[in-house]
Amino acid sequence: SGFNVFLSQGPLIIFLQLFALFGWLIIIRPLLGVLLHLYVELREHYYIHDWQPVVLAIDIPALNVQTPKAVEQLFAHLAGAYAKAGIKEKIINGYVQRWFSMEVVSIEGYIQFVVWTEKEFRDLIEAAIYAQYPDAEVVEIEDYTKLVPEKFPNETHDIWVSDFGLAEHSAY
Hints:
By secondary structure, the chain is of the alpha+beta class. The longest helix has 39 residues, at 11-49. It has helices at 2-8, 11-49, 68-78, 87-91, 122-132, and strands at residues 53-59, 101-107, 110-118, 137-141. It contains 5 helices and 4 strands; from the N terminus they run ααβααββαβ. Helix 3 (68-78) runs antiparallel to helix 5.
C-alpha cells in the first residue's frame, strides 16, 4: 500500500515530506500573530492620535489639613473613568483605556502638583479635586515637558537616574 511505501523511506525523507505538506502551518501561526499585533498597534495609534490632552496645575492652600484618605477618595473618584472594552473595540477600533498622569514637578524651584488628562476628563478631575480640597485652585498650564531639551546631557541640563529594588522578598 501507499502508506507502507511512505513509511519505508528514511526518517529524514519522511520529515521533509511532512514539512513540505504541513510546515507552512508552523510558520503561518506566528506570522499571523505578528501581523495582528502590528495591526492593533496601528489602530491604537490612530485612536490615541485624536485625544486632546490638557495639563492642569493644582494649588492647594498650605494650611489645608487633610488626611491621606482625601487623596484615596480622589483616586476612587477618578476610577469612574474606567471603561471595559470588548475584542471588537480593541481590534477594529484600536481602543485604549484612557489614563491620567499625576505628577509632582518643580518648575524653576516652584513645586506643583500637575495632572495630565484629556480635555474630555477635565470636569471629572476638577470635581474630584474640589470634592476633597474645596479651596484648591485648578488652572490649565502649558505642557512643561516641551521646555525640556530632547538630548541629555547638554550645556544647560544634566540628568541623574536611580532605580530601587528589593534586597529580600517583598514579604519582608
